[in-house]
Design goal:
Strand content: under 5%
Number of strands: 0
Largest sheet: none
Number of helices: 4
Number of domains: 2
Structural class: mainly alpha
Helix content: 55-70%
Radius of gyration: 19 Å
Length: 78
């Protein structure tokens, strides 16, 4: 089921996406969704993402590391 998201764009960015969408005969929302997916797919392999998210121990360590970093716990390693 699709969800509605509010997105604030400056005028130039809005015009860029609008013109791009019109040139590709797409809706503005579809163009933004497609652009976001293409960008993220360059960095995230779906199989690897499922493996990471499915590893409960790793996820606990990542959450702990994030909390520690926010609290400035730990040390830099050269």
């Amino acid at each position: 089921m699709s969800k509605t998201v509010t997105l604030r764009l400056d005028d130039a960015t809005y015009a860029f996406f609008r013109d791009w969408a019109q040139a590709d005969n797409r809706t503005l929302s579809n163009m933004i969704e497609t652009a976001a997916k293409r960008h993220l797919e360059r960095f995230v392999d779906p199989k690897e993402e499922r493996e990471i998210l499915g590893d409960a121990a790793l996820m606990r360590r990542l959450r702990k590391g994030t909390r520690d970093a926010k609290l400035r716990r730990g040390r830099w390693v050269d």
